[in-house]
Q: What sequence folds into this?
């Protein structure tokens, strides 16, 4: 019998990094970690009370409670890619009409062209690519096709044995998801999006996470 949403959100979770187990963390904390890129699709998790050697550990993307947050959709929840409720489509059409008919009250006055003036970011002005610094601590002898994966992202340069600068059409969390599958269980990675002032990391452990959050402060 499937768990109810209330039961799922009441579950506390453990995180396993290499041979170390951290937690437990409640549902809200896990959702925060996912939003910040600290828990990614390949992060190994299990419900509270699971032994480290238990077989119930699984990637976060394969856990019912969090699969949808990594783009995993169950068959019973799947809908046509272009499906949207009629009411939603009608609202979009109406909003488009208002945007094209409204004019600034005074010459030279500027207003958002969309978003009903709610301060939404104009994505058309966002850069198509961003500059990243990728820093790794590779303990395993073989890290798969990691260098090839980095070079495939876009223009890249190896600054040091485990440090790269890359320009790619992605985000820090996106790069982390793409690259973490090529490193070992004991390896770690820290990615800086120098264009957007964002960070993402993998396998550093919650204690290090907390220290980074205290040090790294965004200017806005």
A:
């Amino acid at each position: 019998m499937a768990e109810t949403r209330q039961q799922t959100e009441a579950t506390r979770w453990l995180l396993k990094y290499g041979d170390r187990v951290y937690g437990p963390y409640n549902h809200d904390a896990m959702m925060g970690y996912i939003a910040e890129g600290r828990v990614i699709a390949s992060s190994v998790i299990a419900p509270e009370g699971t032994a480290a050697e238990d077989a119930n550990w699984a990637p976060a993307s394969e856990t019912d409670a969090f699969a949808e947050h990594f783009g995993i959709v169950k068959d019973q929840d799947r809908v046509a890619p272009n499906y949207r409720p009629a009411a939603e489509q009608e609202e979009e059409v109406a909003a488009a009409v208002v945007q094209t008919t409204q004019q600034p009250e005074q010459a030279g006055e500027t207003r958002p062209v969309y978003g009903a003036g709610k301060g939404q970011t104009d994505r058309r002005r966002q850069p198509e690519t961003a500059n990243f610094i990728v820093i790794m601590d590779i303990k395993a002898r073989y890290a798969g096709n990691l260098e090839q994966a980095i070079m495939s992202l876009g223009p890249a340069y190896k600054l040091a044995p485990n440090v790269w600068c890359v320009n790619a059409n992605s985000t820090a969390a996106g790069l982390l998801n793409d690259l973490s599958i090529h490193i070992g269980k004991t390896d770690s990675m820290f990615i800086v999006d120098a264009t957007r002032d964002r960070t993402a990391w993998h396998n550093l452990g919650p204690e290090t996470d907390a220290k980074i959050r205290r040090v790294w402060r965004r200017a806005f």
